[in-house]
């Protein structure tokens, strides 16, 4: 095994999960900070209307990117499973099938995104004064979907085999490039929202090329060989079986959040801009916590493949503890330092006041999502993705839509809108944990 790989089936789990997750956290944090830089440049140099326009696209951007992230989760699980089992043939077929599946999905999302941008934004009741800029930003941004699909594929493979540092290096380089291009396109070229979107897709293609080159040049058993690029029917089915429900879950999740965005849009433009600024904290916290969900899937996958029952269970419990802890720490920090955080995106005091409504409630809610998301990752690592998706649809999607049309419709206040996150995460987490306990017992009985 190469020196830069980690055998996740041996050694102290607490220490190894932390060491494994730190580069992932930094990688996710860098990605969030680079995305925040987009918003900051727009807010500081293009004005509140442009900030509101870009913020109005957040749900739709996350909907498409979330699908690709979910798909890569299936790739991660299978790669970790076959890598842990030392099944070289299945590992190679999985990686080459996954590369093609990812590229096809990226191109498909590009076509759908560009074609449906205006319709989707109109359906979200985006304010008329924000619509033109929002459509322009979204159409350019969606041109980067194939690159994002390839990067997520490569990141999933490297994470599954225990190397979380290489994707971090590539993301860091492309992220710095993104910031430089942001400043150039917006300040020098005065391209407004188009400049921010263009900077994003250029950096995405750079990161995709870098990670693809690394896989092509690699000499290990998970290397990518152009001559082997074909879809193995059985393994492609397994990738889609695990990845598609997770991807669709993210899409449906964001579809439900679109109703939240509609609720926000029912207030004035200042509240929309404040929500846009404050919602940057969501990605900051979620993506750092997500490092431990990836760790959970990778550690459980390799140990399940190696037949190590106790490490399978402990991988879940330790990952859950870490993700809850970091979510609580970051959430409380945002409540305490909310206004300095919001000042990164706007100089308007009224917009900051509006943003604090969201930060105050969400700051104490983020940690609850760990019980839901970490358990979903654990169930996926054991080969179960469809039922967790159904639970999320009911608990965190259908419930949210019902909340918007009942509780929020009755009170019609911003706090009554944001509180739905805490309640929906709690309900979904309980159901996910009960399901996971049953599946875990079944799977461990098969290893006996």
Automatic annotation (TrEMBL):
Q: Which GO terms describe its cellular component?
A: plasma membrane
Q: Tell me what topology the record assigns in the membrane.
A: Multi-pass membrane protein
Task: Report TM segments.
Answer: 20-46, 58-85, 97-120, 140-161, 168-188, 194-216, 316-337, 357-379, 386-411, 417-437
InterPro entries membership: MATE_fam, MATE_MdtK, MdtK-like
Against CDD domains, the record matches this protein to:
MATE_yoeA_like
Which GO biological-process labels does this protein carry? monoatomic ion transport
Keywords linked to the UniProt accession: Antiport, Cell membrane, Ion transport, Membrane, Transmembrane, Transmembrane helix, Transport
Q: Recorded GO terms, molecular function?
A: antiporter activity; xenobiotic transmembrane transporter activity
Q: Which Pfam families does this one have?
A: MatE
Q: Where in the cell is it found?
A: Cell membrane
Q: Which family does the similarity line name?
A: Belongs to the multi antimicrobial extrusion (MATE) (TC 2.A.66.1) family.
Q: What does this protein's UniProt record list under function?
A: Multidrug efflux pump.
Question: What is this protein's record name?
Answer: Probable multidrug resistance protein NorM
Q: Which organism is it from?
A: Simiaoa sunii
């Amino acid at each position: 095994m190469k020196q830069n790989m980690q055998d996740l089936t041996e050694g102290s789990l607490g220490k190894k999960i932390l060491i494994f997750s730190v580069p992932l956290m930094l990688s996710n944090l860098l990605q969030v900070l680079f995305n925040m830089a987009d918003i900051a440049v727009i807010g500081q140099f293009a004005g509140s209307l442009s900030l509101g326009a870009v913020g109005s696209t957040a749900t739709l951007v996350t909907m498409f990117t979330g699908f690709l992230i979910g798909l890569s989760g299936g790739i991660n699980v299978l790669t970790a499973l076959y890598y842990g089992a030392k099944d070289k043939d299945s590992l190679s077929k999985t990686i080459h099938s996954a590369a093609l599946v990812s590229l096809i999905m990226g191109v498909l999302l590009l076509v759908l995104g560009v074609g449906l941008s205006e319709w989707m934004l109109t359906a979200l009741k985006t304010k008329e004064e924000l619509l033109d800029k929002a459509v322009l930003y979204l159409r350019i941004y969606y041109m980067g979907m194939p690159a994002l699909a390839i990067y997520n594929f490569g990141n999933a493979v490297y994470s599954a085999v225990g190397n979380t540092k290489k994707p971090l290096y590539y993301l860091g380089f492309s992220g710095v490039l993104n910031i430089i291009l942001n400043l150039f396109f917006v300040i020098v070229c005065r391209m407004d929202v188009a400049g921010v979107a263009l900077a994003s897709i250029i950096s995405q293609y750079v990161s995709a090329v870098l990670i693809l080159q690394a896989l092509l040049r690699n000499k290990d058993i998970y290397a990518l060989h152009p001559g082997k690029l074909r879809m193995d029917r059985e393994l492609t089915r397994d990738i889609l079986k695990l990845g598609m429900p997770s991807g669709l879950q993210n899409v449906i999740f964001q579809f439900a959040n679109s109703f939240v965005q509609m609720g926000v849009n029912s207030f004035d433009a200042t509240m929309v801009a404040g929500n846009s600024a404050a919602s940057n904290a969501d990605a900051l916290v979620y993506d750092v916590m997500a490092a431990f969900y990836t760790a959970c899937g990778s550690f459980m996958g390799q140990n399940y493949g190696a037949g190590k029952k106790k490490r399978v269970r402990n991988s879940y419990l330790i990952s859950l503890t870490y993700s809850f802890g970091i979510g609580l720490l970051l959430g409380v920090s945002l409540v305490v330092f909310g206004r300095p955080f919001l000042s990164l995106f706007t100089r308007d005091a009224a917009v900051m006041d509006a943003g604090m409504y969201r930060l105050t409630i969400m700051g104490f809610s983020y940690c609850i999502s760990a019980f839901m998301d970490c358990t979903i990752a654990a169930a996926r690592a054991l080969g179960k993705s469809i039922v967790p998706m159904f639970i999320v649809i009911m608990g965190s999607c259908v419930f949210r839509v019902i909340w918007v049309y009942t509780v929020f419709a009755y009170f019609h206040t911003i706090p009554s809108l944001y509180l739905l996150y805490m309640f929906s995460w709690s309900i979904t987490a309980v159901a996910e944990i009960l399901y996971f306990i049953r599946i875990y017992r079944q799977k461990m009985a098969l290893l006996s």
